[in-house]
Amino acid sequence: MSAWLRMHAQAFRDAMARLAAQPWASAVSILVLAAALALPVIAAVALRSAGAAAAGLDTDPHINVYLALDATDEDVKRVERALRSRPDALAVKFVPRAQALQELKATTHLAEILSALDRNPLPDAFTVRVRTTEADRVAAMRSEWSRLPKVDQVTADFEWSGRLARWVRFGDRVLWVLAGVLGIAVAFIVGHLIRLQVLTRREEIEVSQLIGATAADVRRPFLYHGLLQGGLAGGAAIGLAALLAGWTSAELSALTPGYASELKVVFLDSRENLATVAAAAALGLAGAWLAVSREIRRFSAR
Amino acid sequence: MIQFSAVTKRYPGGSDALRGVTAEIAGGEMVAVTGHSGAGKSTLLKLAAGIERASGGSVVINGQNLGALGEAALAVLRRRIGFVFQDHKLLYDRSCFDNVALPLRIAGFPRSEAARRVRAALDKVGLLAREKAMPMALSGGEQQRLCIARAIVNRPTVLIADEPTGNLDADYARAIVDLFVSFHQVGVTVLLSTHDEASLGRLGCRRITLANGALVPTQAPA
């Protein structure tokens, strides 16, 4: 083993020994760091889960046109022609009231209630896939079509899905800001803890420098200490987030049967977990670097 | 081996500790630096060990001009010089063994090799039986010897000691002086400061005398 490798191994052992020397203090500081790191991890999991739920929904822009219950076949044909004449309408799909009833019975738990009714409460309807999501043109289509004879109601269901997509994008940005701010906080907390370590070992550092330790030699064990603290905190943060996800996912999937789209907790994948731990370790390293460099500069003012 | 050329040292805000000192210590030589307290003895030794830098002039060790070395290179050079500090600079939170092992840890020695050398150094100064003791439990003379063990554990070719017989009883002082004479006899270059006439007589070596930071014309060996 080369002297270089030995010195790194020695610094690593030294850092481990320092963590182990004060097990409670180490555990508490790692938990504090983990709590700070867990927040963005939890936010990321929530966002992915919301994103996954949104992806399961039909988000193609479409407008539903419901006819009156007393509309005749003649009325249906007239409305269909009117809908097809509009250039913004990409596809027009007719949903007969009988078929709508079958679908409703199949996909929900309302079958018993529906069969108790003596007649079909659902109207004939058209689903029109449209070219645009521009509010003005959608509003124009809605008002034009609701004036057609025997048209009862026109709804543009995609407005909320566009809004949902925007909320997800907004959440994404908030997540990055949160991760950035808490990441900086973690670097500073580690820096502070390392600074305390440096101060308690001031004599050892001074003597070591006198008998031939370079600044890098002095820094090395503290850097490993910061790296370890950060990495362990990153792992603990993922553990905390996983616990929370497990706890909430049972409740969330209990909500699912009532809705067409499946709700479930989507956790980070293994690569993202690794990246989180690596990022936390890097933050610990950066914090330690800043603290130690500053303190060493102060010692070696000769 | 060690050459001082017109060396000056001025501490920030203080007076001149050294003023144009020129001197040379040959390889394998033993030299005592004498003078009243505050004459600049400690400063001269620290400059020779690369612990401090000269404000003017040059300090050359083994052909290397210390002024031209960067911080890291200077630190590495210090590993090849054994230094016995006036105030010991022992670490009181660890055993004698660990104190002596510190230079080897810094140099990245394998642990088994380091343990062997530490025991050899402790044996040389007569402290092998105390390897597990804490420095606080040692007498003043023993602490001094522990400091010497740490200085020689790296097998330096130059050994520098600042007032090694400082606050010791005559018997202890004699034992310490004999230790340095024995290092000199095996070829180590020894540079030490003292103001104790008895020790100087026992050393029987060339003297460099300082007064107010300047060299006093050399005297013949006693």
Fold and architecture overview:
The complex is a heterodimer of chains A (302) and B (222). Chain A is of the alpha+beta class and 302 residues long. Chain A has ten helices and four strands. In chain A, α2 (23-55) packs antiparallel against α7. Chain A is elongated, with a radius of gyration of 31 Å. Chain B has 222 residues and is α/β, with parallel strands linked by helices. Chain B is 35% helix and 25% strand. Chain B has seven helices and ten strands. Chain B has helices at residues 41-48, 71-78, 96-107, 111-124, 140-152, 170-185, 197-203; strands spanning 2-10, 16-25, 30-34, 56-61, 64-65, 81-84, 158-162, 189-193, 206-211, 214-216. In chain B, the strands form two sheets. Chain B has a six-stranded mixed beta sheet with strand order 6-7-8-3-9-10, with helices on both faces. In chain B, strands 2-1-4-5 form a four-stranded antiparallel beta sheet, with helices on one face. Chain B starts with a strand and ends in a 6-residue tail after the last strand. Chain A binds chain B through residues 1, 3-4, 6-7, 10, 203-204, 206-217, 300, 302, and chain B through 51-53, 71-72, 75-79, 83, 85, 89-91, 93, 102-103, 105-110, 150.
Short description:
The complex is a heterodimer of chains A (302) and B (222). By secondary structure, chain A is of the alpha+beta class.
Write the topology of this structure:
The complex is a heterodimer of chains A (302) and B (222).
Chain A: H1 3-21, H2 23-55, E1 62-67, H3 73-85, E2 89-95, H4 97-107, H5 111-116, E3 125-130, H6 135-146, E4 151-156, H7 158-200, H8 202-210, H9 215-255, H10 270-299
Antiparallel strand pairs in A: 1-3, 1-4, 2-3
Helix pairs in contact in A: 1-9, 2-7, 2-9, 7-9, 7-10, 9-10
Chain B: E1 2-10, E2 16-25, E3 30-34, H1 41-48, E4 56-61, E5 64-65, H2 71-78, E6 81-84, H3 96-107, H4 111-124, H5 140-152, E7 158-162, H6 170-185, E8 189-193, H7 197-203, E9 206-211, E10 214-216
Parallel strand pairs in B: 3-8, 3-9, 6-7, 7-8
Antiparallel strand pairs in B: 1-2, 1-4, 4-5, 9-10
Helix pairs in contact in B: 3-4, 3-5, 4-5, 6-7
